[in-house]
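seq:
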Amino acid sequence: MGEICTERLTLAYDERAVVAGLDIVIPTGRVTALVGPNGCGKSTLLRGLARLLKPRGGSAYLDGRSIWRMPTRELARQLGILPQAPVAPEGLTVRDLVAQGRYPYHGWLNRWSEADEEAVARALDITGMVDLAHRPVDALSGGQRQRAWIAMALAQETKVLLLDEPTTYLDMHHQLEVLHLLRRLNREEGRTVVLVVHNLNHAARYSDHVVALSDGKVVAAGTPQEVVTSEVLREVFGVEAHILSDPDTGVPLCIPYALCENSNVRAPSMDSFAAPHTGHIHV
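struct:
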């Protein structure tokens, strides 16, 4: 379980549609990478799937149910989102941040339980944050902070994780650290993972399914071998690239070398400048 799909989904800021009439299927239990140029609608789509942005038309579905008709707490027990550049309150410890992932399980009469304690402890252990549990989040390195936020998502115990550019602003070591963790969560836990990523080689190496977007529409979707091609890169990014075979994994390895003449790739739209959601991870 955990299949996400959309039917004629339209998402907009003010009067401008960023995603228009989009039909997409996210496979269950796989890692899906959303790729495309700045302003193409990747982050907007993710916010729409997480119910952070109300559609102007169409809908999004989780296991056949409209996410807009699901009770908020029920949806938050099934789907978690890690927004781009999340910010924790000053002085908040890692453990307290991770504990916020248990919000969907608490109502007026529900107190902190042994199940909550176990979920937090497990999330800290999986992400390698046990020794940092009592450190303030704002005192951590970039990679450690990302792991802390991912631990929060894990404590939420959802079957679907949506992550908006989880490797942005991280150095090479910490990028790989986060990507390895996400792939391990998928392989060992069976979680459906959807992430916005700019690095095509990361998308090809760490995902099972790639969706290439341009101007709010799907240009190509499928395995890395089907999507990361010279033709798709010309159409989506307006670049010429050599596509080699990764000597370690056999997946496509992209080496861009020139801009296409008469490229139709547009300058970034409002999607590039929309303020990131920095609140809690639940929906």
